[in-house]
Amino acid sequence: MAVERTLVIVKPDAVKKNAVGDIVRILQENDLKLLAIKMVHLSKEQAKKFYIVHKDRPFYDELTDFMSSGPCVPMVLEGENAISRVREIIGATDPAKAAEGTIRKKYGTDVGRNAVHASDSPESASYEIPFFFNQLEIHDQY
Ligand code: DAT
Ligand code: MG
C-alpha cells in the first residue's frame, strides 16, 4: 500500500448536470483528501494535449471536441492506493457497463460523455496533475 495522488476531472457533461458537489462528496467520503480543485474551459488544442496518449484512436477528435465544449473541474486527490481506488469508484468507461453505485453509472450518459476522468497509472498521474496545477495550487498541509 502506498499513498498516491491522482487527477480527477468532472467533465463538461457532469458540470452541466450540477454534479460537481456530489462527485467531490463521494470521493471525500471514500477517504480521498482534496488537495486542489479549479474550473477551466479547455481549448481544443489543450484538450488534444491532455489526451495525447489517445491521438491515434478513432475517438480522439470526438473526445477532444467534447472536452473543450464547456468548463470542466479538474482536482487532485490523495490517499492510499488512490489511483486504483478512484478508478473503481468511477466505474467502467462505458456508463452502461459501470457497476451500481459508481459515479459513471450515476452521472454518465454514454461512452463518450461519461462524467469523469481519472488517472489510470502513476505515470499518467505524473503527466496529468502538473498539466492543470502548479506546486502553489496543491495543498497537503491541512
Ligand atoms: P477511461 O476514461 O475510462 O480511462 P479511455 O482512457 O479508454 O477510458 O478513453 C478516454 C476517454 O475517451 C473515455 O473516458 C471516453 C472516450 N472514449 C473511450 N472509448 C470511446 C469510444 N469507443 N467512443 C467514444 N469515446 C470513447
Ligand atoms: Mg484513460
UniProtKB/TrEMBL annotation:
Protein localization: Cytoplasm
E.C. designation(s): 2.7.4.6
InterPro entries for the chain: NDK-like_dom (IPR034907), NDK-like_dom_sf (IPR036850), Nucleoside_diP_kinase (IPR001564), Nucleoside_diP_kinase_AS (IPR023005)
Catalysed reactions listed for this entry: a ribonucleoside 5'-diphosphate + ATP = a ribonucleoside 5'-triphosphate + ADP; a 2'-deoxyribonucleoside 5'-diphosphate + ATP = a 2'-deoxyribonucleoside 5'-triphosphate + ADP
Keyword check for Secreted: no
A Gene Ontology biological process term: UTP biosynthetic process
Active site as annotated: H117 (pros-phosphohistidine intermediate)
Domain of life: Bacteria
Cross-referenced SUPFAM superfamilies: Nucleoside diphosphate kinase, NDK
CDD domains cross-referenced by the UniProt entry: NDPk_I (cd04413)
Main function: Major role in the synthesis of nucleoside triphosphates other than ATP. The ATP gamma phosphate is transferred to the NDP beta phosphate via a ping-pong mechanism, using a phosphorylated active-site intermediate.
Protein name stated in the entry: Nucleoside diphosphate kinase
Biological source species: Balnearium lithotrophicum
Name of the coding gene: ndk
